Structures are given as structure tokens and as C-alpha cells.
TrEMBL record:
Pathway: Cofactor biosynthesis; (R)-pantothenate biosynthesis; (R)-pantoate from 3-methyl-2-oxobutanoate: step 2/2
Domain Opine dehydrogenase: 186-332
Protein name: 2-dehydropantoate 2-reductase
Span of domain Ketopantoate reductase N-terminal: 8-107
UniProt GO BP: pantothenate biosynthetic process
A single GO molecular function term of this UniProt record: 2-dehydropantoate 2-reductase activity
Organism name: Candidatus Kentrum sp. LPFa
Length: 365
């Protein structure tokens, strides 16, 4: 493994701190960049160190902690974007002037069509030689407090894919070696997007527990927020997602399949999605949000649910449950997210059939 591979991590939320901290603990050179200086102050005050506990432990010292994008990526081999999905386009536009051809990008995670959107932004600016990788889910289940990050679990079998496919990159190969016990290669970025469990859970849990959240009555988000009946609704929506997978000829893991693959030791004996959620110790202690309009809505609807609905329309597959949760959110929040959503229409991919979509996911052309 090449320890001289260097990384820039964008985003100082739970995941970004876990990612930067773990790479630093492993002995790699890491810079951490965040738009807001406030999120960086606890790390700077801790001598640029991130302290990990739980499933991973150690103290990792970062080479650089900054709000300056050019400083953060200068000389870095792999740029890992851990921001919420709306930040992908913002960060990409901001780093465009200082990107170099030998650098690569990794969206951790990407949500639907993440690498495709980023590649289009790069192409529109005349940048052609940047490899874009994406992960299907977060490697770490974690929560951060200042410079302290607790890792509840390291997930297994997280998918990684690239756009374009078939291109080698030393930095991404190093990343794959570091996380070889936790990630596996997928064929295309369509697969990584469609096999993301997050957007299949969060909007349903939020909206079907809206009364509790609105009244600020805290509960264990997963263990109490997913009841047998809520689980039934999630599984009904999930069958729509897997039908789209089958229509595209890609692996169609169900929600319970994904849960078992990501958390094999925690839920391997579960026989239903409700049971798997209720018994997953990695979810223990994760509290409900203190308000309803969180990233579980403003990220998961336009970057997960709406792209899936648009795929269903293109492939003539009905998605009534996903359409219902979208309409419920649209009514509740007075927002339709149509301008920002990563739909086929917004990405200029209307008219492509299954073969055309797969080809585009391989080449970006």
C-alpha cells in the first residue's frame, strides 16, 4: 500500500470527520476542508487531531485544516467529498479552477446519479481527465462531537464504482486497499446509486413519525421509529426500487438484503426488515431529529426518491409508494424540489432506454 498517497476530505460533519480521522490514523497525509470555519475550530484547538472511539479507535493528526479549497486540494491525489448531496455540485464548481488532471474525486456517498452530475459539471467546463468514483453508502455509522468521533460500526459490502469505467487510478486503488474488508466493486454508478439504503428509510421514518418530531418528543430513530406497519410501507417502496434494478439488469438486493450485507454480524438472523432494523445494534442510541425538515427530507427526496421516480417513468415501471412519499413531503413543506433534483430530465437523459442508461453510466457519453 502506498502511504505517500495523499487525501483531501471535504465536509466536517459526522462522516467527514470519521473519514479524515481514520485515514490520518492509518498514517496518510490528510487535509480537511469545510465551508464553515466554526465546524473546524474544535479540531484546530485539538492540535489538528481527530479522536476516534468505538469500532475504530486512535488519534489521527491532520496535515491541514482549512476553509480554503485551493489549499485543501493542492498536491492531493484523491479528493473525497463527504458533504450532503446538494454540496456535490457546489464543491465541484468551487474546486474546478484548481483541479489537476492527475487528481481523482470520490463521492462518499453519492446518492442517485452523483458521479453523472459531477462529470457533467466538469465536462461543461472543459475538464475531461478526472476520474470520479462513488460509494453506494457510508462506510462508517458514526456521530461526531467536536474533535471526538464515535464509530458505532464499520459497514460491510459497500459498493464502489467509477465514471468512466475501466480507468485505473492509483489513489482510488489505494483507497480500495485501505477499505478492502468493507467495500466491493460494482459495475457502474447506476448500481451504486440504486443500492443505497439511506433514501429508502429516512423520508418514511420522518414523515410517519411527524407528530412526535414536530412535538419534539425524542425517540430512538431506528429502533422505535420503524414499527411493523412502517416497515411494510418501506418494503413496498423498496419493491419498486428493486423492480427498476431488474429492468436495468443489475443486482437487485432488497432492503433487508442490504441491511444484512452492511451489518452481517448484527442482523444476520433477522427474517424481516422490521426485525433487522429493531435488532441492529449499530442503530442503538441514534436519536430522532429535533425538527422535521432535516437532510432526511431535503437530501433524500430530491437526490434519492425523485431520481428513482424518474427512472421508473423512463422504464415504464410504476412507483406509487415513492410517488406518495414525495407528494406527502411536497404538501408538508411546500417545496417540489424540481429544479435541483437529480432527475433524468434535469440531467438531460430523457429518452434513453435501459441500454442507453447503462452505456451512459459506463462512459458519461
Amino acid at each position: 500500500m502506498r502511504k505517500n498517497t495523499t487525501f483531501a476530505v471535504f465536509g466536517a460533519g459526522n462522516l467527514g470527520l470519521a473519514q479524515a480521522g481514520h485515514l490520518a490514523v492509518q498514517g496518510f497525509g490528510v487535509s480537511l476542508c469545510n465551508r464553515s470555519a466554526k465546524r473546524l475550530q474544535p479540531i484546530i484547538q485539538n492540535d489538528n487531531r481527530i479522536e476516534l472511539s468505538g469500532s475504530l479507535s486512535g488519534s489521527g493528526r491532520l496535515q491541514l485544516v482549512t476553509t480554503n479549497y485551493a489549499e485543501a486540494i493542492a498536491g492531493r491525489d484523491l479528493i473525497i467529498i463527504t458533504s450532503a448531496a446538494p454540496g456535490h455540485r457546489v464543491i465541484t464548481r468551487d474546486i474546478l479552477p484548481v483541479l489537476r488532471p492527475n487528481q481523482a474525486l470520490l463521492l462518499h456517498p453519492a446518492y442517485m446519479f452523483g458521479a453523472i452530475e459531477v462529470r457533467q459539471l466538469l465536462a461543461d467546463s472543459g475538464v475531461q481527465d478526472i476520474l470520479i468514483g462513488e460509494l453506494s453508502n457510508t462506510v462508517f455509522a458514526c456521530r461526531a462531537n467536536g474533535a471526538q468521533v464515535h464509530i458505532f460500526a464499520i459497514k460491510k459490502n459497500i459498493g464502489i464504482a467509477y465514471l468512466p469505467t475501466g480507468v485505473d487510478n492509483r489513489a482510488i486503488e489505494t483507497f480500495k486497499i485501505i477499505y478492502r474488508d468493507y467495500i466491493e466493486c460494482y459495475d457502474t454508478v447506476l448500481e451504486t446509486g440504486l443500492l443505497d439504503l439511506n433514501y429508502m428509510l429516512h423520508p418514511f421514518i420522518n414523515m410517519m413519525n411527524a407528530g412526535l418530531i414536530d412535538r419534539m418528543e425524542p425517540f430512538d430513530y431506528y429502533h422505535c421509529g420503524v414499527t411493523p406497519h412502517i416497515s411494510n410501507v418501506i418494503e413496498a417502496a423498496d419493491r419498486e426500487r428493486t423492480a427498476i434494478c431488474h429492468a436495468l439488469g443489475i443486482r437487485g438486493y432488497s432492503a433487508i438484503d442490504l441491511m444484512k450485507r452492511h451489518y452481517p454480524h448484527q442482523v444476520e438472523k433477522s427474517t424481516s426488515f422490521y426485525e433487522a432494523t429493531a435488532s441492529n445494534v449499530a442503530y442503538k442510541g441514534i436519536a430522532s431529529p429535533d425538527h422535521l425538515y432535516t437532510r432526511n427530507i431535503w437530501e433524500d427526496i430530491p437526490y434519492g426518491i425523485m431520481p428513482i421516480i424518474s427512472l421508473g417513468k423512463a422504464l415504464e415501471i410504476e412507483t406509487p409508494v415513492m410517488q406518495a412519499i414525495y407528494e406527502l413531503c411536497r404538501a408538508a413543506f411546500g417545496n417540489d424540489w424540481r429544479e435541483e433534483a437529480r432527475t433524468l430530465d434535469n440531467l438531460g437523459l430523457i429518452g434513453l432506454d435501459a441500454a442507453g442508461l447503462l452505456r451512459y453510466a459506463q462512459t458519461g457519453l
